[in-house]
Design a protein that fits this description.
Elements (H helix, E strand, L loop, with lengths): L7 H12 L5 H15 L12 H10 L3 H29 L15 H9 L18 E6 L2 E6 L24 E6 L9 E2 L6 E3 L4 E2 L31 E3 L5 E3 L4 H8 L7 E5 L4 E3 L2 E3 L9 E3 L4 E3 L20 E3 L11 E6 L2 E9 L10 E2 L36
Parallel strand pairs: 6-8, 10-16
Antiparallel strand pairs: 1-2, 2-3, 4-17, 5-6, 5-9, 7-8, 9-10, 11-12, 13-14, 15-16
Helix pairs in contact: 1-2, 2-4, 3-4, 4-5
């Protein structure tokens, strides 16, 4: 509290000197004054400033109570951060003797706003080491390729649990088999609520989410649309209730490990029907290894118009059904694959491709998926905000033995 006749500036100086030691006013006072200037109403000036209090009061008078409470909370958090965190940083900045004036800078509005407005739902880059080492074995026995793995990645993950995902990464016991010489089926097979395949590091590719609009299985949310917060990390991955870490889209860190950050055609895994998975690079001419490399594009596009039923509204990629396959629109077929030469198959083979755009990981099989990838037991799920309906068939339960 300011003493009688004491200005706020002199009050801050007295508090700083008595409570925190003598701090260079060039750092301490601008930091506190700036914070109060931004986050409190008209402290010392009549000039118009960004005033959260005024917005809050206006919204409250107009009946927007929820948003007004949000603004009130945001102002309180921002003020606390500015008054408590920034002075500590200021102390450290001024605590190094011998630094010239140029090395001690008053804090700027950008820094204060960054503290107050850092997004909470952005993908995490915490570089957390898995609780154990990755174990994977891929062998050929007779007509089958056997894949055994504990499901732990060979790269860092995001922080789990997190705000959008309450689960912790734990070892699994994967035992999959796929045909060594897969055959294309007469018609593509739609991916159910089970893994599409498994990466060479033993982490499964599991692109679907057990989230539907009002329980209507015609309107499944697309996990990568951002419409729901699933707490994915920098590898487009998160964790099932079983502890299974799994990819929903491009496995960024795995690709960097396999390619050393270079553009190259690289085998990243095996699909449940036995065909290999590559991506995202391929030869411009699928049958010519001397042709230039390019990032391959899917042939799926967001539909035009509006949804005829269900959630209604314009097609925008929120739901899986918002997309349609347009033959020739990209480099790949409806299964997000093509026939071509690869380093492992110099005579050529059909192979799937992971892409930066929908479907990211294929949602259709060219061949018949092996039942070892099917899930057994009751469906699982994350839970979460109401209104999305029950978990669908297959859910997030554990993979089959």
């Amino acid at each position: 509290m300011p003493r009688p006749g004491e200005t706020k500036e002199s009050n801050f100086r007295r508090v700083a000197e008595n409570g925190r030691g003598a701090v260079d006013d060039r750092v301490q006072l601008p930091a506190r004054k700036l914070a109060l200037k931004i986050f409190t109403p008209h402290l010392t000036s009549r000039r118009k400033t960004f005033n959260l209090t005024g917005v809050h009061n206006t919204m409250r008078r107009n009946g927007h109570f929820g948003f007004s409470l949000f603004l009130a909370g945001a102002r309180a958090i921002a003020l606390a951060a500015a008054l408590l965190i920034l002075p500590g940083i200021a102390d450290r900045c001024s605590a190094h003797p011998g630094h010239s004036d140029e090395t001690i800078h008053p804090f700027t509005p950008g820094l204060v706003l960054l503290v107050a407005a850092a997004p909470a739902d952005a993908p995490r880059r915490d570089n957390v080491s898995p609780a154990g080492s990755s174990e994977v074995s891929i062998t050929v026995e007779g007509n089958y390729r056997l894949i055994r793995a504990n499901g732990l990645p060979n790269h860092p993950t995001g922080q789990f649990p997190n705000r959008g995902n309450p689960n912790r990464v734990a070892p699994q016991n994967y035992n999959y088999k796929v045909p060594v010489k897969p055959q294309a089926a007469p018609q593509p097979t739609r991916l159910g609520m089970h893994p599409f395949g498994i990466a060479v590091n033993g982490v499964v590719f599991d692109p679907g989410a057990a989230e539907w609009w009002n329980g209507d299985f015609n309107w499944q949310y697309e996990p990568m649309s951002g419409a729901i917060n699933l707490g994915v990390d920098q590898n487009n991955a998160h964790v099932q209730p079983t502890g299974a870490y799994h990819y929903h889209a491009m496995p960024t860190d795995l690709l960097n490990l396999l390619t050393s950050g270079k553009s190259k055609v690289v085998l990243v895994g095996w699909a449940a029907d036995g065909f290999p998975i590559y991506g995202p690079w391929g030869f411009a001419n699928a049958k010519d290894t001397n042709s230039p490399l390019k990032k391959l594009k899917s042939s799926y596009r967001v539909r035009s118009g509006t949804r005829p039923d269900g959630p209604g509204g314009k097609y925008d990629g929120t739901f899986v059904a918002d997309y349609e396959y347009v033959k020739g629109a990209g480099d790949l077929d409806e299964c997000n694959g093509r026939f071509g030469i690869t380093p492992e198959f110099p005579a050529g083979t059909y192979h799937y491709v992971l892409t930066d755009d929908f479907p990211f990981i294929p949602r259709l099989f060219k061949g018949a998926p092996d039942s070892s990838f099917f899930r057994h037991g009751p469906p699982g799920g994350f839970g979460g905000p109401g209104g999305r309906g029950p978990r669908g068939p297959g859910g997030f339960g554990p993979p089959g033995p």
